[in-house]
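User: Assemble these into one structure.

Assistant: Restating your components, then the assembled model:
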Amino acid sequence: MSHAANIRSRILIPLSLTFLVLLCSFLYSAFAIRGAGIANELEREHGETISIFKGMLTARTRLMTAAAEVILKDPALKQAMRSRNRSALYAAALPYQRKLATNDVTHFYFHTPDSKNFLRVHQPDRYGDLVNRDSMQRAVETGDAADALEMGPFGTLTLRLVIPWHDRNGLIGFLELGTEVNDILDDLSIINNIDYLVVLNKELLDKKAMATGYAWVGRRVDWERYPDKVIIAQSIPGIPPALDHLLAEETKKFSRKKAWNSAALDNRHYAFKTFPFHESSGREIGNFVLLYDITNQTRSFHHFIVYSLCFSCGISIILFMFAWKILGRVEQTIEETRQKLSEEVIKTSEANTLLESEIAERQKAEEDLVHLNAHLEERIAERTRHLETATRELEQGRHELEKAYAELTSRQAIILHQDKMASIGLLAAGVAHDINNPIGFVTNNLEELRIYLTRLQAFIEEQQAIIQASASPEELKKLQEDWNQLGIEYILDDFGALIAESLEGATRVSDIVKNLRNFSRVDDFAFKLADINECLENSIKITQHELRHKAQVHRQFGEISKIFCCPQQLNQAFMNLLVNAAHAIDKRGDVTLKSWSDADYVHISITDTGCGIPENLQPQIFEPFFTTKEAGKGTGLGLSIVADIIKLHQGKISVQSRPGQGTTFTITLPIRPEVGNA
Amino acid sequence: MPDTLRLLCVDDEEHILKTLARFCHNEGITLLTAGSAAEALSILEREPVMIVISDYQMPEKNGLDFLSEVRSKWPQIIRIMLSGFIEPGAVSHALQQGEIFGFLPKPWQRSDLKNLIQTAAVQYKAGTATERTPR
């Protein structure tokens, strides 16, 4: 069964592996698609969040711009700035500052055209420092209003607006307004309904300054929690451990490009991604960590995966088992076939070996023979040809002789019988004249005698009448006595019978002669159209002398068409059968002749009520010289002649016989035999 | 029979001639007899005859040859063959060729002979000497 096991494993292991690979591909694809979907979602959410964030910044900017325009139009402020009167400026600006503070605009500056701070309204005792923030630089460069999100030295995020301040003589300075935007970050989660963290890189910050700055805006930060990052905003109450762990790692690793990570917190699952967080100048100051709640998604995805796996595994197991079974059967068949084949191969190889050795021997013998008989071969071939020809001729001759002999023997009996009958016929013909002449005058004389008798009777009656009238009583008495004594009355009565019986005898003699001649006519053995019923009638006439004393003859002749035959020979056959029938009947019986026909055949049956033929002898009865009659009474040729004659007519003869009850011979003759030569 | 029929019978068997003589006597026919063809021919030279009845098998000359000669010499005479042995083919041939008017086999029936002679007589009277189509 090692082959079988091989086939099973050869098919099933690759199949199983293929299935596993497909399953893995499926799982990988499912996860990859899901991952890509989530990554897209995160990107989209991020984009949306950032755009909302920017929108909110723009709104603040617009607010500040509106406030700035009001401030810049104040002539008192303008005057104070032109004259570089710091105290006047501060005094004029203070009302504005209070108003701005209620709108969260916490920063209020005046700068000189050379970018040096002239007055901090929110911090009047600090001035004269060079302002090189991005927003300022852009305002100087473009000569137009510039706004920017910037991280200050305290780690707070500030939206600043710098506007150049012109009068009729040109630039007199810059107005700068600023607002803390950390609260905007808080609002994002409410507006966009997402979770996020905003972290800043510690390397850009100072612990103390940051604590101060955030205390100032009313916030707290946990500086010590992570080695190089500090959280400034978060929308979820706690930080998932996975994210926590990641944040604890170094910045480089944290910001490494990865589609997204997952994290769990309080039965919620999150996908999170870290995006860089930039100032308006483009400087990266930290990260925006976006958290996306995938709890439901993950659950349904996991359900989907579990169901798919269960389904595929189930189907695979069923297929595997089916294949296992089918292959088992195939293996069995293959194993059986292989065994048969190997047996065949062994047999064939044995036979081949035998054949090869035989061929080798033969070749050797042949070579020897060729070598020895090279010059003899031609002569032998020639001799063989001659011998073959001679043998063929001999064989043919022998065959013809056999055929001829068979024909001769089969016809010998017929010819013998025909000869015999012909001799009888010749004899009959010879004596016919001699017999017919006396019969002729005997019968006619008898006829004349009958006429004479009639006349004599009439005369005697007349004479008696006259005598009765004229004679004496004595004479009459004498005459009466003589009449009685001589028996004249009897003579006159018997005369007619006597003549009739004599005539019948003469007729019978002439009939015998006629029949003998008809029957044994030598000149008439040709085939011709003849009526079988006539033949039967003739045969009955001929055998009348045999039949008359033994049997009542019954004729049941049917209407049959004339057939092409030799009537003389058929007569002979029928006659033989009738004579046999007569011989078979011991005292008295019946002989019945029947004839009938169908489309192609005429049937004749001759039935006697004689002694019958024992069943064991029936097969032999048609053989020549077979007889059951006493020695000297039968020739044993009768039925063999019948059989030959019927054979000559291409007919058939059969016998049905029951000992003690009788015998029926049935002859069937073709209406149109194929050969018509006697 | 009307008038007197004159009949000549030829046979080498005397008993046949006697029997025929009895028949003719009883039937009222005038009968001449001859024991051979030569005798018959000499009678025919002398006597008028209406019908000739001849046997077939006779010494010297057979019945057919004799009747043939009668036909050539006295074609008006009706010729009848009465024979106990003759080839049936020869008889039918002779009948067809008109050599003979009728054939009667021996032994014959009295009534058959009577009928044949009556027919022959009618034939003789009805026809001229050449009533049968000559050859």
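The first helix of chain B runs from residue 14 to 27.
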